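anyone seen this seq b4? input:
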Amino acid sequence: MNSILAVTVPFFALVLCGYLAARRHVLPESAIPGLNAYVLYFALPCMLFRFGASTPVFELLNPVVLAVYLAAGLLIVGFTIAVTLSERVQLKDAAFGALVAAFPNTGFMGVPLLVALMGTGAAGPVICSILADLFVTSSLCIALAQAHGAAGQGPRQAALRALRGALSNPLPWAIALGAVSSVTGLKLPGPVDKGVEMLAASASPVALFTIGAVLWRSSQQAHTRTPVGEFLPVALIKLFVHPLLVFLLAGSAYALGAPLTQFQLVVLTLAAALPSASNVSLLAERYGADNGRVARIIMSSTVLAFVTFSALAWLFGVQPA
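predicted toks r here
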């Protein structure tokens, strides 16, 4: 456990630093969008490109990994909506609650954390999960959220809008370019490669710091107080039900002889055990959902994940290098 905590404590400590810096106004609130843009458009794409370029393309687009992860995600979406839909929590809010229950923070936190814990081989399955969540899970939940929207803004239009949003996200394009580099063997020129390496090296610490700052800002923007019963159960679904379902589906696929290794099974389960993606609060705000509820789910899952994620890694016998 000590070796696992030696990896997880600094990661979650950087999230706390970002939260405290924003709360104490050491980091001005006006600077948070700039930090977020730096990570999203510069540092994280460079990190994903480098991982994509050094990973066999079949591991980046493993159909079994994609199928297992997508099946679990879709089941979590349906289950979360079914158990949370009520007079107080309408379909739009239930759909965004389902999104934070099924969409872990694999981009900003998961890739660097799991690579630090399990080596570079973990990058492939995690990148598969990122693509699944960006293109399928988020598009489905946004479409469901808009199912009873204004005229001309039904689920089909909402799904297309969400898909366009995913295509405008630089992360899948960075992964695609990395895959092209992996297949063709083409390398970046020396100075360019060094610049990409420097940006990639900054991705993890800046992303973690930004998560904390974004969580603080989201909590400040919440105008109503959400009852604990409306956000804590969703955080528990994220941290317990989601990884358990991924483990059961992946374990079943492995037992049936599918081309899935025990290593990939563990990586996928740990990816699902990550806290909710912090950027979902920005989506909730954009689409007019209850951002206060979403922010509290993300905050709760992030705080609790320090214990639950570390404990799960220990139960799996993970031994960081």
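The mean pLDDT is 89. The chain has one domain: 2-126+168-315. kinda curious what u guys think
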